[in-house]
Amino acid sequence: MRLTPKHKAFLLIAPAFIYMGFFIAYPLSEAIYLSFFEEGALSLANIRYLVGSPLSKFTEAFRYTLTITAIVIPIETALALLIALFLYNSFKGRDLILYMVIIPLTISDVAAGLIWYSILTSNGFMNNLLISLGLIDQPIQVFGSEFKVRMLLAIVVTEVWRSMAIVFVILFAGLQLLSRDLIEAAEVFGASWMQKLTKIILPMLKPSLQSALIIRTLFAFQIFGVVWILAGRNIPVLAGEAYYELTELRHEGVAALYALIIAAISLSFGFIYIRTLRARHLEVTL
Amino acid sequence: MAGVRLEGIVKRFGRTTALKGINLEIRDGEIMVLLGPSGCGKTTTLRIIAGLEKPTEGRVFFDDREVTNLPPKDRNISMVFQSYAVWPHMKVYDNIAFPLKIKKVRDEEIRRRVKWAAELLQIEELLDRYPHQLSGGQRQRVAVARAIVVEPEVLLMDEPLSNLDALLRVKMRSEIKKLQRKVGVTMVYVTHDQTEAMVIADRIAVMSEGQIMQVGSPQEVYDDPANTFVAGFIGSPQMNLIKARVVDGVIEIPGYEIKLSNQPSTLTGGNIVIGVRPEKIQIGDKPSGPHVEMEGIIDFIENLGADYIVHVKVGDTILVAKTTSLPEHVNIGTRTKIYIEEKHIHFFDSKTGTKIKLNTTKK
Ligand SMILES: Nc1ncnc2c1ncn2[C@@H]1O[C@H](COP(=O)(O)OP(=O)(O)OP(=O)(O)O)[C@@H](O)[C@H]1O
Ligand SMILES: [Mg+2]
């Protein structure tokens, strides 16, 4: 039997379909089943538990996850962009700065949490420094259930430090791809630094910004390790609750529901980014 | 409008020296063409005038105002980039309008001027497209349109017509010249096309390897090239440059001896290079003024329609001649007489390549 082009095409995309079926569709359907079915019958028990049970910290976890995401991503994107712009032109010592910015990329979230915990704890580096400088005489407490705002701050700092690197790498690579002439042309025609940034660089950087934001937002909704190390369940987050419900309370259905919620949120944000950051000039017109 | 003065400009990129001491005065309102082979430093010179590149040594003036350390945006210039640098994320209209928007020109005036520039460059139908939907030549015209919508003090053009077809190029170059005459802007125009240079320039600066070889009007660089480089670079076909020796008032070229009726006193002895433009070699017709007469064999004839390019073997040397008509009997292999008026023979030092000044007493 001879293969028609159509058959060939199906054969070629088959591995991708099998992969997605096995690793995405199947687990997803299992999660849906776990969340919404009990002994073979449709059941909303898990949802009721989620929003109603005194054991559940869903609302808080939802709020904290959104808050952390909403604070961390703009800060790290702005920072990464500034550093990428700063490192766009070569100068002495550029490579050193480049390495320093990228190093956190190689550190796991738990390790990052531990590093910052040891810096910020009462007898850690920060307090020792401030005391030896004579700026304070009592160590500043950061951790403990009564210091929610401070812990949140510590989480934000750690997350920004840890995950800015990936945003930076994507933006820096995107920036390197822009032809220098295009930016110089703006200078020649009298654009100020700000005009250059907003009218030329950012619009052309859209595809990179889009990738960076999508990747980061997806991961931000899964934030877990850093929070678990720095605040435990004092600052509940969605992924942390899923873990807690599964391992401590053995609520498989609730844990699966958390996973579905995280997936749904991620999906909607991804959709929004793709719609709002479209680089129209790169789209093929037929 | 402003004149531009470059004083002792040296530009090094790491180990390469792109410019080796450029001194150039561009007068207010003139078209100065930078002409030279690839890699001679034309773009670098332009970028230094624009402020995109800081000279390693030397100073840049706009009139009497030093601008050496001024960023491009404070120089009131406009530029066509060799790579066009048309912004991919803006439609053609927005590309052309950008310089005007930056200068906060009124919307209505922006529309009027964009329309005017687009018409001049024949790209009106393309205003609503993105650059990736254009051909190379169309993109280049967008770059030119963007550069001319503003009224800068200095207009810099880096090979603005290099990607257009021959017909359009001829039309555009006269449009650019007309436009410059109308607005009177000082213009620096880079090209390596010598015909384009001759047509568009008020003055030409011929460059080679980071240096300026000669500055002068098109006629001056054509009639009176300062050295063998300029002599060979300007004119098509290339000027005949022949190694020669002067012995006892006789000029020896390989296999032939030329006697001048009027030996210049500066031409003593030794090795020289003589130069004769192909269009100054006459086949058949004897000129009336002082001339040299040579005999040779026709080696090859190229018929260009309007002109003939004739290769004549004189002794062991091939001379290229260009004429509009050929005598009847002339054909490949024919023995023929050729004549060169003495005033059209150039003498160059064989070592330095510089012109040997002739102090023949004028009669
Ligand atoms: N950024 C740079 N870094 C290193 N060398 C450079 C740089 N820019 C130019 N050069 C070198 O300087 C010399 C002059 O370059 P330039 O671009 O001015 O030439 P050009 O006359 O414009 O040539 P073309 O006609 O090919 O455009 C070249 O040898 C080039 O390799
Ligand atoms: Mg160039």
Task: Provide the descriptors you would attach to this structure in a database record.
heterodimer; A: 286 residues; mainly alpha; MetI-like fold; two-stranded antiparallel ribbon; B: 363 residues; alpha+beta; Rossmann fold; OB fold (Dihydrolipoamide Acetyltransferase, E2P); six-stranded mixed beta sheet; five-stranded antiparallel beta sheet; 8 helices; 20 strands; 23% helix; binds magnesium ion
Describe this protein's structure:
Chain A contains 12 helices and 2 strands. The model of chain A has no long low-confidence stretch (mean pLDDT 91). Chain A is flat and about 70 Å long. In chain A, helix 1 crosses helix 12, helix 3 (58-86) packs across helix 7 (148-177) and helix 7 (148-177) runs antiparallel to helix 10. In chain A, strands 1-2 form a two-stranded antiparallel sheet. Chain A has one domain: MetI-like (MetI-like fold). Chain A has helices spanning 5-36, 45-52, 58-86, 94-102, 109-120, 125-132, 148-177, 180-188, 193-220, 225-231, 238-247, 252-276, and strands spanning 37-38, 41-42. The longest helix of chain A has 32 residues, at 5-36. Chain A has 286 residues and is mainly alpha-helical. With 363 residues, chain B is an alpha+beta fold. Chain B has 2 domains: 4-232, P-loop containing nucleotide triphosphate hydrolases (Rossmann fold), CATH 3.40.50.300; 237-349, OB fold (Dihydrolipoamide Acetyltransferase, E2P) (Beta Barrel), CATH 2.40.50. Chain B contains 8 helices and 20 strands. A 6-stranded mixed β-sheet of chain B has the order 6-7-8-3-9-10, with helices on both faces. In chain B, a hairpin with a 2-residue loop joins strand 12 and strand 13 (256-259). In chain B, helix 2 (92-102) crosses helix 3 (107-120). The model of chain B has no long low-confidence stretch (mean pLDDT 92). At the A-B interface, helix 8 and helix 9 of A face strand 6 and helix 2 of B. The complex binds adenosine-5'-triphosphate (ATP) and magnesium ion (MG). Adenosine-5'-triphosphate binds next to strand 2 and helix 1 of chain B.
